[in-house]
Amino acid sequence: MSKDVSNLDSVLKGIKEVILLGQNVNSYRDLSEGGVCQNRTADTLAPGFTTVYRHKVGGHRFIDLLDAASSVDPNMRIRFASPHPKDFNSDVLHLIAERPNVCSQLHLPAQSGSSSVLERMQRGYTREAYLELVDRAKSIIPGIAITSDFIAGFCNETEDDHRETLSLIDYVSYAYGFCFPFSLRTKTRAFHRLVDDVPEDVKARRHNELKSALRASSLRFNESLVGSTQLALVESVSKRSPFELAGRIDAGVKAIFPKYYPDTSEIQIADYVALRIDSCTSQTLRGTPLRRSSIVDFYANTRLRDELLP
């Protein structure tokens, strides 16, 4: 695995962002080369999390993949999707904290804030274990952007269960999140063993309340960035104005900004731009481009600036 990634140096030359994509991507384990990696401790689940899957031994784990991919080019951003909270042990969190080019964004699908609902879903964790993971991630990676998924109206969900989900959203302050009303699907445990007993109008109301809570959470997160300088990767011309560009900051939030640097030179697609955040909505940041930058230069300057602060 590591050899394969390192051989991509020439292929990835000039690439600004790579997304490691897979179902439960952080459960990755490559057994094709055999042997147990000696450079890190044995793979462990996040504290308080369990799994019904058989533990795999040997081979390369997600942390090895993330380590190798982020070492290809320090100016190439690395993101990954879609992970499962159970596999975010402290080793993975510390690696993210150590590598400026690994985006400080964690997608932690909670699905519900109620331990009883989580048990019926067979998620393998409680509300308390999930929140301990959130607190640990925020401690290890200051400023981390946490995103999530939620289901409204799962089987036997009560109003108390729903309120627990709303309170979890409020506590975590997600950068953004996604929510969906529950729908029963064939070939699932819920289809065979549970009853879809939450009325559709109740599901719709709870779904709307979750959406409102997530919008409020996103707005709080974005407001916390106003006045800061963020590194944005330019992705496209803004859909609303040919004189503005759109990009994403490290946290994955979209930013809109003028297409010219202060010296009037034009910003190019795929530039990294140091961006002062001036205002926001729940979905979008607006900013002023300060200079062309790179991941290495931006975070070196950020560290230097922080050291000079009282």
Short description:
This protein has helices spanning 2-6, 62-71, 90-98, 115-121, 127-140, 159-172, 189-193, 200-223, 295-308, and strands at 17-21, 29-30, 60-61, 77-81, 105-107, 145-152, 176-181, 229-237, 244-249, 254-258, 272-280, 284-293. It is of the alpha/beta class and 310 residues long. The protein folds into 2 domains: 11-225, tm_1862 like domain (pyruvate-formate lyase- activating enzyme, Alpha-Beta Horseshoe); 228-308, OB fold (Dihydrolipoamide Acetyltransferase, E2P) (Beta Barrel), CATH 2.40.50.
Structural notes for this entry:
The protein is an alpha/beta fold. It folds into two domains: 11-225, pyruvate-formate lyase- activating enzyme (Alpha-Beta Horseshoe), CATH 3.80.30.20; 228-308, OB fold (Dihydrolipoamide Acetyltransferase, E2P). The chain is 33% helix and 23% strand. The protein has nine helices and twelve strands. The chain has a five-stranded mixed barrel with strand order 8-9-10-12-11. A hairpin with a 4-residue loop joins strand 9 and strand 10 (254-258). Helix 6 runs parallel beside helix 8 (200-223). It is globular and about 65 Å long. The termini are far apart. Residues 35-42 and 304-310 have low confidence and may be disordered. Keywords: 4Fe-4S, Iron, Iron-sulfur, Metal-binding, S-adenosyl-L-methionine. This is TRAM domain-containing protein. Residues 223-291 form the TRAM domain. One of its GO terms (molecular function) is tRNA-2-methylthio-N(6)-dimethylallyladenosine(37) synthase activity. It comes from Mesocestoides corti.
